[in-house]
Amino acid sequence: MTRAPATFQPLADAVAEHVHDGDELALEGFTHLIPFEAAHEIVRQGRRELALVRMTPDVVYDQLIGMGCARRLTFSYGGNPGVGSLHRFRDAVENGWPHELEVVEHSHAGLAAAYAAGAAHLPFGVLRGYEGTDLLAENASVAPLESPFTGERVSAVRAINPDVAVIHAQHADKRGNVMLWGLAGVQKEAVLAARRAVVTVEEVVGELQPRPHAVVLPAWVLDAVVVLPGGAGPSYAAGYSVRDNAFYAEWDEISRDRDRFAAWMKANVLERT
Known about the structure:
Blueprint: E1 7-8, H1 11-18, E2 24-27, H2 36-44, E3 50-54, H3 59-66, E4 70-75, H4 87-95, E5 102-105, H5 108-119, E6 124-127, H6 135-138, E7 142-146, E8 153-158, E9 164-173, E10 178-180, H7 187-193, E11 196-205, E12 215-217, E13 224-227, H8 245-254, H9 258-270
Parallel strand pairs: 1-13, 2-3, 2-9, 3-4, 4-5, 9-11, 11-13
Antiparallel strand pairs: 6-8, 7-8, 9-10, 10-12
Helix pairs in contact: 2-3, 3-4, 5-7
């Protein structure tokens, strides 16, 4: 599918146009560049029945799940990094609050392979993995496969092609090309696999300057670019901000109680201008 080049939009307009009820949605970013502000706008716009995908669902997905936005979570690790459990995630799985959540669990390597297959527009990815685990029996997106060349038994994992991917990056140029650097997760693969892609960025620059290990996403693989300094907070954007470690520790207490969680989301997300 050929996209028109990305357009610059306000965050509310980009979410309204590109994120719909029932979508399979990937919000990616590994340790840093987590698109918190975009997620909060999704909450404010009241999206529902989302099938969330993320390699490492942490606080950002705890918030989406607790606010009733999600019907399914496809993931390969879930936790509040360096702190402990995701209590809104656990409440949804264990108690069906605010409603039941379907869970699809992968290994890190398996979910990365699924994204890579989606980005390449292949039906599945292949890896040496899943053997000896319960995931082969529990996950219908994984199947054993025999190599036609060597007879070796490997695992096939169904490709992931989200309806929309949302990421955060450091730079965009005036034509809508985007560059991110630092720890890279599967942002590139998620964007290339998705049918629609939204990127929030720290800054627009005249020209993208090459950096070691940087990832450049051309405007023609994106749909919307949103200029949003600080859009990754309380995570960080390498070169622009630092991680708010105190918030992650505080979230452990906030998220344990349903009423305290709801009050925090109302004050800090729903009613924030």
